Amino acid sequence: METTDMGKMTQQYRPAAIIITVFLLSVALVLAARSDLFPFTLWFQHIPRTPVNVTAVPIGTINKPIRIDRPGFIENSTSIPLHTEFSGRVSEIYVTEGQAVKAGQPLLKLQGSSGPSGDSGPSTATGENQKAGVSQQVQDNYDNALKDVKRYQKLYEQGAIPRRQLEDAMVRLQQAQASLNNGQNAMSSTNTNAITTTLMVPPR
């Protein structure tokens, strides 16, 4: 009777014993793996490894060229209108048809007539008034061009405007100076009836 009861108890607790045994074996395997106690882990630890050479190269940006790209467009004029202080006839031409020209380049010489020097009466007075008006206008053009050059020179030195704008102002001053000289020569000459001026390419 006692033997039978002992066998029943053994069969009753056998699954629990198996589960406990499997659990303990699993815990032991995990601890052994984390502690590198397996033979194959020890073998991997003793495998010789090839050393790796590392070279350090200094990197700097000193004396490196800097490139700045700015979008824009180029304008090209095929024809430029010309304006004169008086009408007359062309006495000399310095360029040919279709020739490329640049700002400040002489184009032609214009010769105008101021009327006979021996005329008297209202026509003479009208001619003198016209001369005085033309002379004053030429002087005003020169004064304005000179002021522009001085003002643009200061702005260019401050870096506020490009050099091209200053050069255009200087070309306008040269044209005004030439017109003023021609007007002064015409006014100072009492023995000639012709007024001449040289037309140059205006700045764009």
Automatic annotation (TrEMBL):
Residues 105-138 are annotated as: Disordered. It comes from the Bacteria. One of its GO terms (cellular component) is efflux pump complex. Residues 112-127 have a biased composition (Low complexity). Residues 128-138 have a biased composition (Polar residues). One of its GO terms (molecular function) is efflux transmembrane transporter activity. This is Uncharacterized protein. It comes from Thermosinus carboxydivorans Nor1.
